[in-house]
UniProtKB/TrEMBL annotation:
One Pfam family named in its UniProt record: Thiolase_C
Highest taxon of source: Bacteria
Biological source species: Sphingobium chlorophenolicum L-1
Residues annotated as domain Thiolase C-terminal: 267-389
Keyword Acyltransferase found: yes
EC number per UniProt: 2.3.1.16
Active site: C89, H346, C376
Record-linked SUPFAM superfamilies: Thiolase-like
Protein name: Acetyl-CoA acetyltransferase
Entry's Gene Ontology molecular function annotations: acetyl-CoA C-acyltransferase activity
UniProt keyword terms in alphabetical order: Acyltransferase, Transferase
Family: Belongs to the thiolase-like superfamily. Thiolase family.
Amino acid sequence: MAEAYIVDAIRTAGGRRNGKLSTWHPNDLAAEVLNGLLDRTGIDPAAVEDVIMGCVTQGGEQSTALGRNAVLASRLPQTVPAVTIDRQCGSSQQAIQFAAQAVLSGTQDVVIASGVEIMSRVPMYSSVNLYAQAGMGTGPWSKRVLDRYSVPEFSQFKGAQMIADKHGFSRAQMDEYALESHRRAAAAVEAGAFDAEILPVPVDTPDGPALHRIDEGVRFDASIEAIGSVKTLEEGGSITAANASQICDGASGVLIVNEKALKAHGLTPLARIHNLTVTAGDPVIMLEEPLEATRRALSRAGLTIGDIDLYEVNEAFASVPLAWLKAVGADPAKLNVNGGAIALGHPLGASGTKLMATLIHALRARGGRYGLQTMCEGGGVANVTIVERL
């Protein structure tokens, strides 16, 4: 039977808005990850048959075939093609799934799935705002779409609040969840839990050149009082910037191969991809779809949630992983064990391969077998990927 293997999975440490990674051009930071995968695996660069790169805001420096430009900025030969994809926050998780499908089919043997987002330089929604300012149409949703769902727009912020209200999560519960994310992330940093997955990259600091190795967003002194003091995003709501993911700069990547490539290049895999699932549901509540996607993925894989040793559920907003835990009956102790996007940041198009790097290395460190990753995405879509540590 055909198999898809992950040979290595790496990421940069996250950079805060206008922080240490903000001087990097997206092409170049993505190229660092591509080069890092070559260095760590020792594979012949010419053996790479494709690069699939996730990026959400494809404007400005992230426009015009970003994936291809990253290849040209890297040590990969110019003969390596690339494509840039947008499945919103799941863009690079979808890159993993496309890469896996390619090697499973035998169409290709060696593919890099990756992602990058420099939100300091290309802010969220900047491409939409630019088009509006330039008079390029009426926006991303036609009247037909908006009329179908009887809404003036689709909003992930409103969707997150709807999830909190529907599943009965209070502001206090979400703030407590956010605090735990920071606590777990701080403990992981102090224990060196991220060392195996982080690719150090050079940055300039007030003290001179340095290597960026530690996620900037982690608040080692986080307190419930400080989190509780942050204003809600809308009057009467319970979602705040403190119980939602942080804006983040970063890049990440995964090398995916089939058994033919393992033997041909003498590679040792970290994990086998066990299941690929993507589903879609209500685009208004939007971020709730990981619940259904997880149920379907487990059913297709012939597994139960009890079989899964660790889960990475993207912390776009605290209401999302809380609703996921409640709906699928998962163990909170296995969820985002090294903290999540509330503490570590959410570099949009890079988050899918970023979470996969964290999941695989955490499974190895803890001796777990199965890991599950899921991501809520704009438009009511969700990806689930299940891997088996080898």
